[in-house]
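Internal tracking record. Fields below are filled automatically when a chain is submitted to the structure queue. Please do not edit lines marked as system-generated. If the sequence contains nonstandard residues, flag them in the REMARKS field before resubmitting.
Queue: standard
Priority: normal
Entity type: single polypeptide chain
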Amino acid sequence: MGHAEHVSIVAAPLEFAFDYATDYRNAPDWMFGLTRLVPMSDKVREKGAVFDTDVRIGSTPLLVEAIEWVANSAVTMKSIRGIEGQVRWTFRALPGNRTEIKTTVDYRVGFGIAGRALGALIKAMTATAIRHSDKHVRTNVETLYRQAQVA
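SYSTEM-GENERATED OUTPUT FOLLOWS
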């Protein structure tokens, strides 16, 4: 099983950062490789929400489900079609209107030579995706927060 973690500090209050990062309509603006995230049920911001995506790993688009949703605290999305894996984001308020966002990615690939090769490729892609996503979610949240303070 592959695993990656990353911690980021965002210069915005917890509620603001959580609301932006967990709104599916914003995800294509900050999440690496994501061009489309479409709700497949009436649930969109709670446990049990299911989304079809245009993030492609191999030839299968991912279908993901929220298996955890705790307001202003944590969201875990698990793949229910495509590469087996999950992403968990935890949010923690910090002094000075800042928020810590921790991203944890776990994934499983097949066994044997092909599985090891795919695992190495996914590990490299995961590191790039986390860095890209971190930079963009941080920049977007901080920019929108500053704009909201001026308005």
